[in-house]
Amino acid sequence: MSRLRDLPATRFRPADDGTAPEPPELRGSSRDGVRLLVARPSGIDHLRFRELGDVLRSGDLLVINNSATVPGEVDASRADGGPVVLHLANQLADGHRVVELRSSPNAAEPVLDGVPGEVIELSAGGTVTLLEPYPVAGSSPTGVGDRLWRGAVRTPEPLPAYLGRHARPISYGYLRRSYPPASYQTVFALRPGSAEMPSAGRPFTTDLVTRLVAAGIQFAPITLHTTVSSTEAGEAPLPEWFAVPEATARMINLTQARHGRVIAVGTSATRAIESAAGADGTVRPRMGWTDLVISPERGVRVTSGLITGWHDPNASHLLLVEAVAGAERTQQAYDAAVAHGYLWHEFGDSSLLLP
Hints:
By secondary structure, this protein is an alpha/beta fold.
């Protein structure tokens, strides 16, 4: 796995823990009631997400990810009986799965001492055999062990049914507890396959989408099945399966021809449309795996705005944000988010970044 340049953690993180520990619905709010920071050339504004229509304009195109989240977290044990939490992520082309061992009971820390051939016993029956580090040995930037594995999964029933019965959505130690699968689906969720929720789309509600469409805002779907997001600082993003349909490619190209704004809802939507864009900015239908790393050096060819949550100092996400918004505007936005107590992670607040 290639290593990206480091971003100093203090640049983009509040001094205290600003993580949202639960969905906004359990904090007395609503999905579209989370805060929305808007960063654009005229300055920074603080709104609620339900007010998104106040800063968009007729003819804007929002590219959304219609991937649905699949439960992939199960309890397991190692040969010595020690409990672990197992994250089952994307299915690879050879039928194996990307898997990650994490500490029990709440997946707070990665477990890095797995070895090839180790058999992990699933609590609900079945096994996962660690075959080889993924994508390559020594891929952990810490240099201590391997975090992700190519795993052979054996369950007493077909895996989708098994996960539906025995797994819960992938989560991490910063959450107060595990939440039901519906908490991890966006209003756009249609095609099952994501290991973790494409969370930039979570604040949208049916009512908000209806009002935006009525105001002349257009929506175009892509599919990108996300892998585990618990990458360590310095890790490049993992390959992910995506599809940009013909109708979406046509809508993007038409919007650009009319000098409209193509606003990606999330880093996953950004990665998908940029993977389908040629050097001239023309988007063509594409389907397959993408290993594209979007950085300020590479730049973006299509994306003219980004709706996204607030990320830890994880290089792959923040470099993508900088590629869209520019380093200066990204810094201004994060400074303002820290100063005003915005909440981080999948159940947190949101931003609209316009270069």
